Amino acid sequence: MREIAKLAGVSTATVSRVMNNPDTVSPERREKVEAVMTAFSYQPHQRKRPKPTNLFGVIVPDITNPFFSQFLDVLEKEAYLHGRSILFFNSRHDRHQERIYLEECARHNVDGVFLLPLTCETGFLEHLQALPYPVVMLTRTSSLITSFAVDHEKGGRLAAEHLIKKGHRRFGYVGVRAGLEAKLNGFSDYLTERHFILPDECCFDIKADGDLNAFVVRCYQEKKPPTAFFCMNDVTAEKLLITLQKHGIEEVDVVGFDDSMTARLMAFSSVAQPIREMAYRGFEEMLVLVKNKGEKSETYTSLLFPPKLVVR
Questions:
Q1: CB distance 234 to 262 below 8 Å
Q2: Which residues form the HTH lacI-type domain (predicted)?
Q3: What are phi and psi of 256, to 5 degrees?
Q4: Residues 230, 251: one domain?
Q5: 228: which of 70, 158, 163, 200 fits an S-S bond (Cβ 3.0–4.6 Å)?
Q6: Are 170 and 227 in contact (CB under 8 A)?
Q7: Which strand (E) or helix (H) includes residue 102?
Q8: Residues 251 and 162 placed together within one structural domain of the fold
Q9: Residue 205 sits in the same domain as residue 68
Q10: Is residue 312 part of a domain?
Q11: Which of 135, 127, 94, 88 is nearest to 111 (CA)?
């Protein structure tokens, strides 16, 4: 298959889809692949459809984050109630590791995989489509794959609205920018609509900018530092609060995202995601996909759930 892909100038995933789901490939690419296959008299191996294993894979980016642990808990309980078992993987925010685990699931002949992904890039989603089992994506949505998530943009807007109502006029953001644009955009757009700004110097990217401690010191050396922050999740909010306390900085409002046990214990406001509802709906959809395995789907279910701000 790799040689066919190389000669046709396409990916192996595209070759796989030409053989298994040709209608999902553009006519131009399909013709290229089929021409190479014909020229070399390529005959794909006809593999028997594996018997159901009653095993589902679950891949999360960080099991130490209580938010992802809650997803795993709900999925495991649902699997047990349906006479199934869970094969669990922790990608540790590593895209390469995530792909390895997807292949590992294929080797274990899982009936399907619940994926809490690190990216929604088109190439990656096409790779998911070509896998030998159905995938249900949770926490992010796309029209290219069955997926369920919360409306992150709405969540960002709720955080901004809350902080403005509390009287704040100077704002900051701590989190990842790439891949989580919806949260940040919702927050920033709402501020702009109310004639406030989110200065670049008050935004910290935890992956790209390095030292959170140095960022806090730099911010509070300014004459008018932020009085409120929005964080991409509760784990990040906890780190920010600890850093602020370390420098004796008080009376700063922090809003997190996920409303996990961390937010409840540290008593800061957070945007809640309906984890159980998303997981239940995802599990129901997976059962349908497994039942209809082998049948081509013209469309994929993609649904956004409304968030809710929990004020503390």
A1: yes
A2: 1-53
A3: -100, -165
A4: yes
A5: 163
A6: yes
A7: helix 95-107
A8: yes
A9: no
A10: no
A11: 135
